Amino acid sequence: MVKKLLLPASLVLVLAALAAPARADEPAPPSVHHAPIASAREGHPIVVGVTIEHPERAKRAVLVYSSGGALTEVAFERAAGASPYAATIPAPSSSVRAVGYAIEIEDVSGRRAPAFASREDLHPVAVVRDDADRAEAALLDRVGGRRSVFAATGEYVSFGGSDATVDRGGRRVTESFRDTYWRTDVAYTYRLFRTVSEFGIRFGVVRGQAVVPGERDPGKFDVGLNYGSPRVRFRVADWVHVDAELLTSVTEVGFSVGGGGAVMFGDPYGARVTFGLEGVKVFGVRGYSRLDLVAGKRFTLAPIVEVTNMPHTDAGVRLLADVGIDLGAGFAVGLRGGWQARRFDLGGPTAGGHLQYAF
């Protein structure tokens, strides 16, 4: 004879309730689907995206976060990205190494429940320090937040004169000709402060007179150049930068191409030394060294030594000095003076100026 197992009435009711199927007309509560964020970059806002199941039954979803302080709430809103809804945690400061967040959902009756993590146990997000971002921010702060630079430069150069044998009326005669030229250009530079530190382009005009070796027609001693030159600067290290430049031009004898480059050691916006080389087919080549010194809060001084055969003639040496003055509000001016010669007993002066505006 089998005995029946007798259960208390209260337990029977509980088991019956658990075993009973859910009523078909009882709506499912709203829920949240979310891919947790493990890390974030320093100085960048953290965008938290979610998908809400049965959004018609939810009054709102709320992001609860702490970024080194008290808990803060921000509501999720419609988003155009990968997730239908998103909320943003402001960029954490450099002193914050971790951020925590949780997600809560509130139904139409006003009842709020945790949907991901909780206020008592926030999901942690590691804040990753980005040295490139910090370096960019530091350099941008040094230049007053001014990334774009417009500049205009003008220069008059005299090497004195040169003797040449030319044809005059069917006879060959030796005459002295002036060896001078003037140059003006305008340039635009954009500063990135990254591996590509900056890039830009300049346009310029050169006009002058110089003895062209092997030329007997004095009418061809009037020389000139119209040029355009894109350039880019790379940061190899904080104290080493490399410039590369392509030069396209039209000279008095036709189309020419050229290029150049420079290596800079030191602070690109302070004391530094630069070694550079530039050449244009037909027109000539120049090599130079430049030492930029900080002479005060608003003054810089830069002695320059240049060896060049521009334009079209024998090599000469130029000894120059640039003085820069920071006027504030993004404006700066510069003055250039110096002396150059192709022969030890004959030379001439250089005079020039520079105007710059950064914004």
Architecture overview:
The chain has 359 residues and is mainly β. It has two domains: 100 residues, Immunoglobulin-like, CATH 2.60.40; 223 residues, Beta Barrel (Porin), CATH 2.40.160. A twelve-stranded antiparallel beta barrel has the order 11-12-13-14-15-16-17-18-19-20-21-22. Strands 2, 4, 5, 8, 9 and 10 form a six-stranded mixed β-sheet that branches. Strand 17 and strand 18 form a beta hairpin. The N terminus is likely disordered.
Short synopsis of the structure:
The protein is mainly β and 359 residues long. The chain contains two helices and 22 strands. It folds into two domains: 100 residues, Immunoglobulin-like, CATH 2.60.40.10; 223 residues, Porin, CATH 2.40.160.40.
Primary descriptors:
single chain; 359 residues; mainly beta; Immunoglobulin-like; Porin; 12-stranded antiparallel beta barrel; 6-stranded mixed sheet; disordered N terminus
The number of helical elements comes to 2
The percentage helix is under 10%
Distance between the termini: 100 Å
Shape designation? elongated
- The name of the CATH superfamily of the largest domain reads monomeric porin ompg
Note poorly predicted spans: 1-5, 9-18
| Succession of helices and strands | HEEEEEEEEEEHEEEEEEEEEEEE
- What about the largest sheet? 12 strands, antiparallel, barrel
**Residue fraction in strands:** over 45%
Provide the gyration radius in Å: 36 Å
Enumerate the strands of the largest sheet in spatial order, edge to edge or round the barrel. 11-12-13-14-15-16-17-18-19-20-21-22
Number of strands: 22
What is the fold-level CATH name, i.e. the topology of the largest domain? Porin
SS class? mainly beta
Tally of distinct domains: 2
